[in-house]
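Example record used in the benchmark description.
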Amino acid sequence: MVTDIRTYTASGSAPMSEYLHLPPDSAQQINRPFDAGALYGTDLRKEAGVWYRPPPPSDDFRQQFLALADKWHRETGHLSSPPQIALHPAYQQIIGMGPAAIPFILEDLQRRGGQWYWALMAISRQSPPMGPMPTAKEINDVWLRWGRQRRLISRQLQFQGI
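Model output (structure tokens):
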């Protein structure tokens, strides 16, 4: 750890011999991994998985998703090339929204259809089992079933026409 720089060279950096270093025992104490258990009397890392739940997505998050999904549907509805559809900037931004976007993607898939399977695979890092050469409808049905099994979407949406 640097505590003092005496002179600089023409390139703007000081030669290594010009740096004053802390004694080795101090450096070892500084570089030792932080132990939260020693500080708080318990290992918070172990307990965090039990009590931590991410906050539910806000209305702003939902509105952002809907705006991106509308743009994506509008600008790719006429395309037949899956790579062009999946590489659309709005689609990529939705993937960047992460796991919180999965319920919204599934709702949109249930309501409007579309080729959401690339986004669902990228975000969830899962691929539900499908038969050989499935149709787009079969792929969508498998993903919707996957979402219902995990309670990410409800069955009522399909009957309400949402």
